[in-house]
Amino acid sequence: MHCYVRSVYIDRSVAKRRTKAPAKGRVVLTRGRKRVLVVPFVPSVERDGTTSIDQERWVDATLEMFGRVFGGATAYPKAKGIWRDDEKGGALVRDEPVVVHCYTTPDDIQDDGNLAELGAFCRTMGREARQGEIGLVIGDEYFAIHDFGEE
Amino acid sequence: MNTQLDMDKIAKGLGAERREKITASGGYFGAMQILADIQARFRVPSGGGRPTDRGWTERRLLPLAPRTLKRLEEITAKIREQGRVNVEPMQLAALLLEKTTDQLSEDDAEKLIRPKRRARR
After folding, report:
1. Does B71 touch chain A (CB under 8 A)?
2. Cβ separation of A140 and B39 shorter than 8 Å?
3. In 3D, which of A137, A133, A49 has the Cα closest to residue A87?
4. Cα dist. A106→A36, A51, A139, B5, B35 in Å?
5. I need a labelling partner for A44 at 20 to 30 A (CA). Which of A9, A95, A149, B110 fits?
6. How many Cβ atoms from other residues are within 10 Å of residue B103's Cβ?
């Protein structure tokens, strides 16, 4: 079987010039890679499905928190979403959430202090934006926060 | 991707309830992520030209199979059809390469290295 290969130019981001050679070729692999994706959803309306919230403020606050705690995040353009409120007879709440992506390390996402800060932020957003649930995807699992009580 | 996370610890630390496993890396959702990434990052250079990521200043030759290039051309053609953004096949390749490199774990990287070491013995 023939395998044809074509060469083309691509762009790539600037790599920092290495000043010291890595020992035995392993040093570059010893630091934790940012391989865990954390995805919070920033809602656009309150639980009633009609009252708008200050979404821009909460997107900025989310980015600021992820930047400070986990080193960075990206907010995507508005999406369209729907959520079934089982505590209100299965009423469907339609909104336009902003999805934020944050890549972090396993150590950082499992750090007690970081988890406490992330949880506290989600509870504050849930409470002040009058949400029924704050959803968060970490790795390959969805987490739901319902109890927005202050600690 | 094997993340080996202690999900119970994470749920407890967050004060959250574990719901269900999800896969969000492929299919339509994955494609939309790529599209959103392109829209968010690609900017038209001040001197004109096609939109690009300003951080991409290095250029290298990349060998690839015709079927890979064809697939990249198909995806970028669909993006252009939707009128979202004018992205070229190799810009998409660069974006995918960057994302994959960022997500490559230490274990994944070692698995890539290991077969070569064995072959040398």
Report:
1. no
2. no
3. A133
4. 6, 37, 9, 7, 27
5. A149
6. 16
State the average pLDDT over residues B57-86. 84
Given an 8 Å threshold on Cβ–Cβ distance, is A145 in contact with B17? yes
Exposure on the CB side of residue B23, measured as CA atoms within 13 A:
5
Q: Complex ipTM above 0.85?
A: no
Q: Are A145 and A134 in contact (CB under 8 A)?
A: yes
Q: How does pLDDT run across A6-34, given as a tens digit for each residue?
A: 444 444 434 444 444 444 444 344 346 77
Cβ-nearest to B5 among A14, A33, A110: A110
Q: Which residue of A has its CA nearest to B34?
A: A76
CATH topology for A32-145 is: Alpha-Beta Plaits (3.30.70)
Q: What share of chain B is helix, strand, coil (3-state, %, to 5)?
A: 55, 15, 30
Is B109's CB within 8 Å of A7's CB? no
Burial (CB count within 10 angstroms: exposed 0-12, middle 13-18, buried 19+), residue B83: exposed
Name beta bridge partners: A135: A144
In the sheet that holds B17-21, the strands lie side by side as A74-75, A98-104, A36-42, A134-138, A141-145, B17-21
Sequence ranges of the domains in chain B: 7-120
Q: What number of C-beta contacts closer than 8 Å exist between A and B?
A: 162
Determine which of A3, A8, A11 to mutate to test the interface with B (most B C-beta atoms within 10 Å).
A11
State pTM to two decimals.
Answer: 0.55
Query: What mean pLDDT do residues A24-46 have?
Result: 69
